[in-house]
TrEMBL record:
Native species: Cucumis melo
Residues of the active site: 219
PROSITE patterns in alphabetical order: POLYGALACTURONASE (PS00502)
Database matches in SUPFAM superfamilies: Pectin lyase-like
Compartments in which it is found: Secreted, Cell wall
Family: Belongs to the glycosyl hydrolase 28 family.
Keyword Cell wall biogenesis/degradation applies: yes
Bilayer-crossing regions: none
Membrane is among the record's keywords: no
InterPro entries: Glyco_hydro_28, PbH1, Pectin_lyas_fold, Pectin_lyase_fold/virulence
Pfam families: Glyco_hydro_28
Keywords: Cell wall, Cell wall biogenesis/degradation, Glycosidase, Hydrolase, Secreted
Entry-linked SMART domains: PbH1
Protein name: Exopolygalacturonase isoform X2
Length: 373
């Protein structure tokens, strides 16, 4: 058992305990067999901290995080796009214990200019997982991240469950979970309240399953945005099921940029058994996505969308257009299917409506709103 207190962590919430954490990690990583890294109850000021492998002789490493970690608010300590707490290049990591990672984002959010600057400096992510294999993350809380709460990059075999993710509705770019270039990922049984996408599926992902997520407030569950950069990887094998969204700015959203610098595809995606409670844009495909006021729309999106299934989507829409399928003129959507969609207006007025561009969807069973003419 490697305890951070044994390596000099003060746990008073005022003294920087980063060096004690790193010393405890090095000892744990240099051990052999089944290893536990313990962060006992207490308040720790840390960061940024990179927990790196490979831990060559360790068969499994469990981080029992029972404490309350407070992030440094000194932004000069962090690199652009870095993580506050990073786990890198490891096999068989488990992170659990019921503890809290408090990013103290309210002091950093005023410095976020990514909605105005295309090339903005990215603030740090609370928890970043880089090039990990066979990872389990459960029973932890991420609070008030400066940027994304959890980010996966090039991970294989990742299970996340029973997570609590929370930031104010107006906190910028605080995506709950962002997944990038990863495979065989499963997130479930979690509550996400944040200021951006509850979950965002980026480029290069395959075999991702999202189930039993309660989302809201936030911007919904999104694929993308895709098609912004050159040489993006394809997305395939996504399943989102048994989720509930409440008061979100979007429901299920697929978003791709116009004027793409290269082509890619997103295919074989199923969204099933989703409950919408007073959600704006419950079902939306937007292939002209641009959060800025200065995008070029001269060329259409080059992201090819195909084999998309919306099944058993029900609840209420706060926007008149409850189903918007707005695809690319360059690559019209192929094989889009809606089965048993029942979305009433939250206001109790008459039925909502649908819009479609560059798509011929296939409809089965109940369709409220009615299909596009």
């Amino acid at each position: 058992m490697n305890r951070v207190r044994s390596f000099g962590a003060r746990a008073n919430g005022l003294t920087d305990d980063s060096n004690a954490f790193l010393a405890a990690w090095r000892t744990a990583c240099d051990s052999a067999g089944v290893v536990t890294f313990l962060i006992p109850k207490g308040t720790y000021l840390v960061g940024p901290v990179k927990f790196s492998g490979p831990c060559k002789n360790v068969s499994s490493l469990t981080v029992k995080m029972k404490g309350y970690l407070k992030a440094s608010t000194n932004l000069s300590k962090y690199g652009s796009g870095a993580g506050w707490i990073e786990f890198r290049w490891m096999e068989g990591l488990t992170l659990t214990g019921g503890g809290t990672f408090d990013g103290r984002g309210s002091e950093a959010w005023p410095f976020n200019n990514c909605r105005d600057d295309y090339n903005c400096k990215l603030l740090p992510t609370n928890l970043k997982f880089v090039a990990l294999n066979n990872t389990v993350v459960q029973h932890i809380t991420s609070l008030n991240s400066k940027f994304f709460h959890l980010a996966l990059v090039q991970c294989k075999g990742f299970i996340g469950s029973k997570l609590k993710i929370s930031a104010p509705e107006n906190s910028p770019n605080t995506d709950g979970i962002h997944i990038d270039r990863s495979s065989n990922v499963h997130f479930s049984l979690s509550h996400i309240q944040t200021g951006d996408d509850c979950i965002s599926i980026g480029q290069g992902n395959s075999e991702v399953t999202i189930s039993s997520i309660n989302c809201g407030p936030g911007h919904g569950i999104s694929v993308g945005s895709l098609g912004r950069y050159r040489n993006e990887g394809d997305v395939s094998g996504l399943v989102v099921k048994n989720c509930s969204l409440t008061g979100t700015a979007n429901g299920i959203r697929i978003k791709t940029w116009p004027n793409s610098p290269g082509s890619s595809s997103a295919t074989n995606m199923t969204f099933e058994n989703i409950t919408m409670n007073n959600v704006s844009n419950p079902i939306i495909i937007d292939q002209s996505y641009c959060p800025f006021g200065f995008c070029s729309f001269k060329a259409p999106s080059l992201v090819k969308l195909s084999d998309i299934y919306f099944k058993n989507i029900r609840g209420t829409s706060s926007s008149k257009v409850a189903v918007a399928l707005e695809c690319s003129k360059g690559f019209p959507c192929q094989n889009v299917n809606l089965e048993n969609v029942h979305l009433d207006l939250s206001s109790g007025e008459n039925h909502p409506s649908s819009t479609c561009k560059y798509v011929r969807a296939r409809y089965i069973g109940t369709q409220i709103p009615p299909p596009c003419a």
